[in-house]
């Protein structure tokens, strides 16, 4: 009789990029015959994939390690916080191993040491798509690691290194496998999607008998062949972003751009060492909207950056009013250990930061709500996330999972997750839309 498989508990923290790392590690664990269990008690050891982006995330990661140690005792730490191993060792000297992001080999070798694998070829059956932590119908597609920028508030390049792009054929093959496995929405992620391929000098590769360059536009062209939703995240407003507008206008990729602007004052952006030129941004947004009237623009901003004056904050609010972005996330600046921005003079007081954040969010809330109101009466194609006795919850082209709004379908009880349907919007609140099925069901993919 074969021995029982060793059991691993897995805690995944952090951003979508960390989630992709978790999926890779989980896939490898499954391939090697480990069983993934949902509780500390059932696990022989626990892997904690950490985040180290802001201080709150550092604390959350440390707490998660502490909890895993307390509940289980055998803990392997990986992910972004692993780059600051001294911090972890100081708090928890008993952790078995510490590795940084994307260091799958170190995680696996720590697992092998703690729990030698019991290989059983009958258990080695794994779907082509690997293990996904996202629901079956959407998946994050990581196109590169690292970043060539050096934004002064960010320590990601020091943790993840310079940009390393995955050749376009590899990405397209992965996307193809995901779609074959039932994925209906691909979420393209990286630290800087616009810079994709620059490190590979935009190398040309072949996919499905056709040449594609390792470059954002060409990647989008390839993905559009797959007949599912493609959504772009972390795009910087470089001129070549204009090239994807025709693909959006033709419905080949979703008319959606997630562009982290972070600020609108040229002086603050300079202090932040942000890529892109804000002067032309409003004009560019106007041109995008002329080409793709339905485009959804999402962004994130930091308020209260060191040295931000009242006038510069007002400049940011003016930008917000003019840009009329659809979705916006904002943070009060919080120093990240090791970031160069910490050395900047004139920090903004906590009180003022909170006050500015509140004002910022109030201005944007009105804009977002008004934009949703304009959707009343419209027919939209939505992708169903879940359905039950209360109806269904879906998302439109304007809603990325986790971060944007939802479309509640009151009469969607019979729908299935991963199904595309058309709905008519009946009402809207600050974030979400409420809709009914369009009669008849026009399109079910
Ligand atoms: S673009 Fe800036 S904020 Fe984004 S990962 Fe690179 S350095 Fe960090």
Automatic annotation (TrEMBL):
Give the superkingdom in one word: Bacteria
The UniProt record lists the EC number as 2.8.4.4
SMART domains found in the cross-reference section? Elp3 (SM00729)
Alphabetized InterPro entries for the sequence: Elp3/MiaA/NifB-like_rSAM (IPR006638), Methylthiotransferase (IPR005839), Methylthiotransferase_CS (IPR020612), Methylthiotransferase_N (IPR013848), Methylthiotransferase_N_sf (IPR038135), NA-bd_OB-fold (IPR012340), Ribosomal_uS12_MeSTrfase_RimO (IPR005840), rSAM (IPR007197)
Give a GO molecular function annotation for the protein.
protein methylthiotransferase activity
Q: Which GO terms describe its cellular component?
A: ribosome
Domain called TRAM: residue spans:
373-439
**Where on this chain does [4Fe-4S] cluster 1 bind?**
15, 51, 80
Query: How does the cofactor bind to this protein, according to its record?
Result: Binds 2 [4Fe-4S] clusters. One cluster is coordinated with 3 cysteines and an exchangeable S-adenosyl-L-methionine.
PROSITE patterns (alphabetical):
MTTASE_N, MTTASE_RADICAL, RADICAL_SAM, TRAM
Q: Which stretches make up the Radical SAM core domain?
A: 133-370
Instruction: Report the residue ranges that make up the MTTase N-terminal domain in this protein.
Output: 6-116
According to its UniProt record, which reaction does this protein catalyse? Answer: L-aspartate(89)-[ribosomal protein uS12]-hydrogen + (sulfur carrier)-SH + AH2 + 2 S-adenosyl-L-methionine = 3-methylsulfanyl-L-aspartate(89)-[ribosomal protein uS12]-hydrogen + (sulfur carrier)-H + 5'-deoxyadenosine + L-methionine + A + S-adenosyl-L-homocysteine + 2 H(+)
Q: Which cofactor does it need?
A: [4Fe-4S] cluster
EC category = transferase
Q: Subcellular localization, per the record?
A: Cytoplasm
Recite the UniProt keywords alphabetically.
4Fe-4S, Cytoplasm, Iron, Iron-sulfur, Metal-binding, Ribonucleoprotein, Ribosomal protein, S-adenosyl-L-methionine, Transferase
Q: Name one Pfam family in it.
A: Radical_SAM
Q: Which residues bind [4Fe-4S] cluster 2?
A: 147, 151, 154
Entry similarity comment: Belongs to the methylthiotransferase family. RimO subfamily.
What functional role does this protein have? Catalyzes the methylthiolation of an aspartic acid residue of ribosomal protein uS12.
Matching entries from PANTHER family are given as: RIBOSOMAL PROTEIN S12 METHYLTHIOTRANSFERASE RIMO, RIBOSOMAL PROTEIN US12 METHYLTHIOTRANSFERASE RIMO
Q: What is this protein called?
A: Ribosomal protein uS12 methylthiotransferase RimO
């Amino acid at each position: 009789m074969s021995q029982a498989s060793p059991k691993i508990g897995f805690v995944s923290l952090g951003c979508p990029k960390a989630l992709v790392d978790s999926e890779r590690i989980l896939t490898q664990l499954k391939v090697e015959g480990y069983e993934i269990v949902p509780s500390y008690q059932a696990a022989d050891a626990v892997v904690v994939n950490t985040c180290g982006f802001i201080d709150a995330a550092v604390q959350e990661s440390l707490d998660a390690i502490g909890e895993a140690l307390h509940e289980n005792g055998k803990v392997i730490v990986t992910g972004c916080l692993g780059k600051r191993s001294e911090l972890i060792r100081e708090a928890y000297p008993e952790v078995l191993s510490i590795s940084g992001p994307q260091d799958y080999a170190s995680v696996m070798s720590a697992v092998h040491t703690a729990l030698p694998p019991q290989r059983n070829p009958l258990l080695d059956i794994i779907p082509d798509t690997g293990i996904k932590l996202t629901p079956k119908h959407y998946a994050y597609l990581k196109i590169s690691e690292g970043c060539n920028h050096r934004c002064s508030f960010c320590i990601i390049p020091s943790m993840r290194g310079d940009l390393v792009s995955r050749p376009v054929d590899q990405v397209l093959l992965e996307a193809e496998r995901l779609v074959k496995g039932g994925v209906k929405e691909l979420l393209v992620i990286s630290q800087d999607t616009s810079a994709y391929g620059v490190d590979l000098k935009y190398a040309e590769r072949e996919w499905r008998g056709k040449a594609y360059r390792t470059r954002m536009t060409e990647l989008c062209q390839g993905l559009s062949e797959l007949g599912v939703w493609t959504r772009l995240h972390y795009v910087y407003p470089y001129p070549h972003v204009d090239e994807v507008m025709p693909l959006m206008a033709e419905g080949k990729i979703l008319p959606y751009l997630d562009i982290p602007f972070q600020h609108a004052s040229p002086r603050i952006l300079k202090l932040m060492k942000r890529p892109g030129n804000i002067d032309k941004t409003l004009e560019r947004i106007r041109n995008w909207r002329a080409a793709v009237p339905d485009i959804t623009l999402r962004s994130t901003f930091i308020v209260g950056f060191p040295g931000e004056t009242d006038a510069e904050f007002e400049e940011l609010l003016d930008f917000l009013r003019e840009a009329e972005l659809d979705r916006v996330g904002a943070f009060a600046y919080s120093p990240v250990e090791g970031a160069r921005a910490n050395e900047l003079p004139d920090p903004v007081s906590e009180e003022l930061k909170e006050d500015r954040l509140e004002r910022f969010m109030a201005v944007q809330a009105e804009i977002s709500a008004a934009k949703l109101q304009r959707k009343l009466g419209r027919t939209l194609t939505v992708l169903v996330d879940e359905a039950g006795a209360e109806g269904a919850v879906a998302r439109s082209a304007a809603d990325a999972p986790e971060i944007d709004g939802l479309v509640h379908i009151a009469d969607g009880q019979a729908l299935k997750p991963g199904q595309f349907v058309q709905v008519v919007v009946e009402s809207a609140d600050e974030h979400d839309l409420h809709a009914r099925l369009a009669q008849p069901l026009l399109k079910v993919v």
